[in-house]
Each structure stands twice: as structure tokens, then as C-alpha cells.
Amino acid sequence: MYSREDRIKAIELWLKYDKNLAAVVRELGYPSTKMLSIWCKAYLHEKETGSSTMHHQRAGRYSAEQKKRAVEYYFSHGRCLARTIRAVGYPCREVLAEWCEAVEPTRRTQSRKRVHFSNEQKQEAVIALCSRTGSANELAKAQGVTRTVLYNWKNALLGKEAPMAQKKPKDLPKDKDQLLSEIAVLEKQVQRLRLEKDILEAAAALIKKDPGVDWKELSNREKTILIGALKHTYPVKALLTHVGLSRSSYYYQRWAMNMECKYTALKAHIIELFEQNNRCYGYRRIHEVLSQEGVKVSEKVVRTLMGEACLVAQRKHTGKYSSYQGEITPAPENLIERDFHAEAPNQKWLTDITEFRIPAGKAYLSPVVDCFDGMLVSWTISTRPDAALVTTMLDLATNTLHDGEYPIIHTDRGCHYRWPGWLERTGKASLVRSMSKKGCSPDNAACEGLFGRIKNEMFYTRNWRGVTMDSFMEILDKYLHWYNTVRIKMSLGGKSPLQYRIGLGLAA
User: Fold this and answer.
1) Between these two residues, 474 and 116, which has the higher pLDDT value?
2) Is 379 helix (H, G, I), strand (E, B) or coil?
3) How far is CA 343 from CA 169, 347, 506, 507, in A?
4) Closest CA to 29 of 56, 1, 50, 10
5) Are strands 408-411 and 348-351 parallel, antiparallel or unpaired?
6) How far apart are CA 297 and CA 309, in angstroms?
7) pLDDT, tens only, 334-370
8) CA pair distance 473, 477, nearest whole angstrom
9) Residue 212 and residue 118: Cα distance in Å, rounded?
10) I want to staple 364 with a disulfide (CB 3.0 to 4.6 A). Which of 151, 183, 385, 507 is the partner?
11) Residue 124: exposed, middle, or buried by beta-carbon count in 10 A (0-12, 13-18, 19+)?
12) Please, are residues 431 and 406 in contact by the beta-carbon 8 Å criterion?
């Protein structure tokens, strides 16, 4: 998984940081501390003994006598790897195959490569069989098959009841009408073969299918494309019957393809909007953005186009996170009582701590959410969920308050919000404290919902392997700025929190 250069880089950094595993993983973003410990032990062993163990090469487990016994049994009992392993009790299939190749590489049975004939080749052979002047054996030899295989192809394509073109004089029908009927049957069979040949050529040219494609594997849309290309040469009814497509499905697919041409430009624009907004907008938000741009289209059309383009906002359900550590100081009453609506900014604040776990380590986010419009008043990001995380956040939030603003700040019952430093700062700013019930996350549902949106839109949809902790915190901080200024909320009339406040004259 990792090259030797990657491992050496990690080991050198481990030595530089006084053999601190966590510091190396945090900076590089790989591997786990357990795997790094294994690399370091192997490196020290190599340095002491002079033998390389960096690639985890296993020492030989089997003696030369055991290998010889297993190889001899394999060659003397039908050259079957599974039978040999069951008999001698060792090793695995891959190891036994290597032993056999190393001892006698020419004695291993080589599987014969089967020759596959396409439907077009079979059709040409059957046509030659029906119109031949020589014997069937000579024709089969020229095709590289047996006479039986040749006649099996004829029976599969034309049916067992189909007469052969070449007959002995004594077997020729004497009735003229019978001869004419047989000629008509043969003409229909030839027409059928030509039709199938043209369809195969069209499939190879239009939808890039192999010449021996199975009709059952084609979608209704692909069948419709083939029929559209050949409908001027053959009747539509005959084409529908041959490819196995109903008349209603054919005309529906034609209508659907015409509609796709109508919405091609709109579909490309929807994809662009989805990518620009962190791949987290559903069809309702995309429809709202299009409405703001003056594009008149229904939500149903937007939903359909996003489904065709596989534009789905990723969602992931995780277990609950709780920082509750017991009652350490008296808790204030729940003044919010699950009423997360405010008439003006800075009336009701919510705060909590959430965790982000990546291969490089853990990061913790502590924001302050305004119930008026969901704006993030302030936030702090750190690698440790300590007191400085919440106190710095609170200081940043209180610095935004104007004279006469004393909001209610609602938290859970964690120790971060009950220690003297927190109590001192809330008292100095004249903030009204409010706390949820013990172990009751719905009492702070608006803040928990914020964490869910952040993780679904920014965190769960990405692969964080190889990302350092500093880079991750920069990405998270950038997303939170975008959340405040750009990300639209349907509850705010399709505006971001900042745009909403600017519209009300509450922000510049």
C-alpha cells in the first residue's frame, strides 16, 4: 500500500520527533500509529542485524523435502492443486503453483484456448452451407470446425425443420408448388440473416458493441437507436420483433431522447451548480438557485435531470457523541424549551462541541449559532476539546454584541460550560445561561442539526487519507465561511444568513 520511500520518510520523521508516533501521523496523514510502530521495529531490526524486513518477507515455513513431496503428489495425481492440498495438508494454492513452476515448469498443464466465433461468422458459415457445391465436411474443415458443429449452427439459426439447399436428385420434390414454397422459405431465412447482420454492424458502429452481442443485454434505449438507424431499410415492425422491443417502449424511448436534447444545456448547468456548492444541494435548493437566475423550470424536471446525472447529496448516519461527565456544579434551567425561533439577532444562542475523526487524528469544532437565522456568530477549531476551545469561542462571540444585547446561551451539561472560567465570562457579558436536560440531545436540536449538515455536506463525502490535520482545519474553516455567506437556506427564502441580514438592513 505504501512504498519504501513513504515508509522511510515516516521513520525519519519519527526519529526527528523523539519517537512520537502521534506527531508523525498528524503531520503526514498516514499510516495508523500501530502500522508506524511496526515499520519502526522493522527498521531498528534491519539496522541491528543488517537483514531487510521492511517488506515483511516471511521466513520459509516448509523444508525442501516437504516441497518435493507436494510437487510429486501434484504431478502424479492428476495435476490438481486442491486435491494436493487436501492430501498433504499444505500450503496455499498460490504457493503450491509457484513450487510446481520452479521445479518443472514444462510439466504444468496448460489450458487450451477456446476459439470463439461471432454471430456474424456463424451466419456466413450457415449461408455457405446452404449454398455449397461441395461436401459439408470440406466446408467444416475450411471453417475450422467439425461437421456436427456446422449443422448445430444451422439448426440454431434456421431451425431443424429448415430444408437444405443441396439435395440428391432422388430427394428433390417433384411438385412445382412445393419447390416454390421452399424457395420462399429460403428467401425469408436469407432476409432474416441479412437483417441480423445489418443490426450487428449498426450495434458495432453506433453503440460500440461487440459483433457477437446478445440482444437480451441491450437496453431499450440502445434498441431504439438501432431501429432508428435501420428503419429506412427494413420495416419497423420486423425490427421490433427481431430485437424484442414492444411498440410502446420504442415510441417512449424516442420521446425521451428528444426531451434529453431539450434539456441538455440545463442539465450541464445543474451539474455545475451541484459541484460549485460542495455536492450538498438537493433538487429543491438547485431549483431555488435556478429561480434566482431567472430559469423557469419545475422541481420535477430538476429532480429528473439530477437523477439521470446521479447527483445525490451524500448522507451518513452515525452514533451519538456525548461529552457528559457528571454533575460538577448546579445546572441552570432550560429556558429555551426547544423553541429555537428568535425575533431578532442575538436573542438566543446555541453552542456545543462536535468531533471530526480523520486518519491524521481528531479535530473538534465549537460554534455559536444564532437562532434568528442560523448564522454562526463565532467558532473555534482545535485538536483538543479543552477549556480554551470554548472560552476562545465565547470571547469572539461576545465581542460582536452591541450595548443592550444580552442573549440566552444554551448548552448541554458538559463540564466545558460549568467550570469557573466559563461562568466568569458569561457573568461578565451578562449572558443568560440555559442548559438541556441530562442526556437529552433534542433539547439542543438546532445545534445538533447544524453538526449533521456540516458532516453530510463537507466531511462524509470526501476521502481524508493523506490530509494533514492543519490542512483539514483550513478546509473546515473555509466551509464555515461559505456556510455563512453563500449557502442558501430554504427557510430564509433561498438566501444565505448573511444575504438575509443584508436584505433586512441588519448587516452591511
Assistant:
1) 474
2) strand
3) 104, 8, 13, 16
4) 10
5) parallel
6) 17
7) 899 899 999 999 999 999 999 999 999 999 999 999 9
8) 6
9) 5
10) 385
11) middle
12) yes
Mean pLDDT of 148-176: 68
**Three-point CA angle 209, 211, 217, nearest 5°:** 50
Task: Provide mean pLDDT across the span 36-56.
Answer: 72
If DSSP states are collapsed to H, E and C, what string results for 403-446?
CCCCCEEEECCCHHHCCHHHHHHHHHCCCEEEECCCCCHHHHHH
CA 323 to chain CA centroid, Å, is 33
How far is the C-alpha of 505 from the C-alpha of 500, rounded, in Å? 9
The 3-state DSSP class for residue 367 equals strand
Give whichever of 65-74, 165-174, 259-268 has the largest mean pLDDT: 65-74
CB 163 within 8 A of CB 182: yes
DSSP string, 29-55: --S-HHHHHHHHHHHHHHHHHS---TT
> How confident is the model at residue 276, as a pLDDT?
84
pTM above 0.90? no
pLDDT value of position 372: 92
pLDDT at 152: 86
